[in-house]
Amino acid sequence: MRTIVTGGAGFIGSHLVDHLLRAGDEVVVLDDMSTGSPRNLLDSLVDPRLSIVHGSVLDRELLLDTVRGADRVFHLAAAVGVKLIVDHPLASLRVNIHGTENVLDACSASGASLLLVSTSEIYGKNTSDRLHENSDRVLGSPLRSRWTYAAAKGIDEAFAHAYWSEHGLDVTIVRPFNTVGPRQTGRYGMVVPNLVGQALRGEPLTVYGDGEQTRCFSYVGDVVPAMVRLLEEPSATGQAFNLGGAEEVSINALARRVIQVTGSSSDVVHVDYADAYAAGFEDMRRRVPDYGKAAALVGFDPATHLDEIIRRVAEHLGGPSDVRAATGQRATAGRH
Ligand code: UDP
Fold it and tell me: Record's SUPFAM superfamilies (predicted)?
């Protein structure tokens, strides 16, 4: 199996690459290293079945060349992270819309099957009890840069669906909900690596807004195998699937759990959204997935408990030895 992973040097992408190599695939990573890093692939770099193409999904010719002869493509290359999107809306729109269109074209030309990695962000401010794949999207103004990511990914999904219905492209869409784990960086705003890093350094944990907004964090090691099984499942084609965590937790509660699990003496501080992001920033108050469709079709099971996720992120970030003692883990950073 010759498999292309766009964004394969990123957080989720690199875990996917490790998984595919273990399964025996020949893997080509296409990554512009803007937010990804070859460091994420350290475990796999020695594998002769892995090759890395340094380039962007915006480069049509390169993409056509890379995808030619491939059996399947996992498309994860994107501008991600709320902070990055708020700070650089143009770049994120270009990569997330034109880049994905290029990937769809290349797969259509080569006959490769495609897994398009979308996002739970597309549901926007819908606070339903459980967001089903057919739930309505409740988005703020497109003039507010936070919503440009959801807007772009929504267009990507519509494009993918049209390629499926008009060109017969074998494409499946997944919508991850706050996937977390080792190698995720806090640099672009993601809350778990941010808070765990702060706890390990003994700094105050920055909780934005009143901290009562909730999320359901899912472990990358649970999400990645489900992505592969969904692409391999013929009846999944043309459809979208939620992949999210089982436990709804407020950010205040998350901060308390991070302090407890890492044994940190840090405090929690609340920071206004306007100071954390930009004036007029709108957050999602609540985001809870219904992942029953992926569970029923491919046995998706977000089994890894939040405390265990925090422990693994702390271990990866290489906390001081007393923190590692508190988390009961060995001092081996980044090997998950
Ligand atoms: N958040 C926070 N402190 C941080 C980073 C994020 O309180 O240092 C909040 C953020 O405002 C949001 C939640 O944590 O309410 C999840 O943020 P993240 O960017 O990880 O994911 P998303 O907003 O896309 O769900």
Answer: NAD(P)-binding Rossmann-fold domains
